[in-house]
Design a protein that fits this description.
The structure is a single chain. With about 150 residues, the chain is an all-alpha fold. The chain has two domains: about 90 residues, Hypothetical Protein Yqey, Chain: A, domain1, CATH 1.10.1510; about 50 residues, Arc Repressor Mutant, subunit A (Orthogonal Bundle), CATH 1.10.10. Helices cover about 75% and strands about 0% of the residues. The chain is built from seven helices and no strands. Helix 3 packs antiparallel against helix 4. The chain is globular.
Amino acid sequence: MAELKDRLQSDLTTAMKARDELRAATLRMALTAIRMEEVAGKSARQLADDEVMSVLTRETKKRREAAEAFDGGGRPDRAERERAESRVLADYLPAQLSEEELRDIVAAAIAETGAESPRAMGQVMKVVSPQTAGQAEGGRVAAEVRRQLGA
């Protein structure tokens, strides 16, 4: 079993004992998403830590998008709940890259691939994506690549 999944499970138990409703509900939701991923497909399997990390990243993104939607719909109470859940999940994700770190990684990838135009964006993304996995959202990385390629 993945270490991260074990940690989530033990933290859920701790949150339940402490009667921390927000944390317990968020961790239950995350574990459910992980279990759904484990049984998806032709046969059940155990997820590795990197796969659990991608599920948590996806769930965090869903919370952020839901908060924006609730803000747009005039529901600040629900938006704040979604943001709070996102913060709980962020505790289990690696630290996000700063703008400067992302800029440096993209610049190095552009130099490595010799890309000069926006048409080479795919080549640059192939090099950058593994380096930023779990540490920067794909849209943010793509925007930086586009910016540096002059698109």
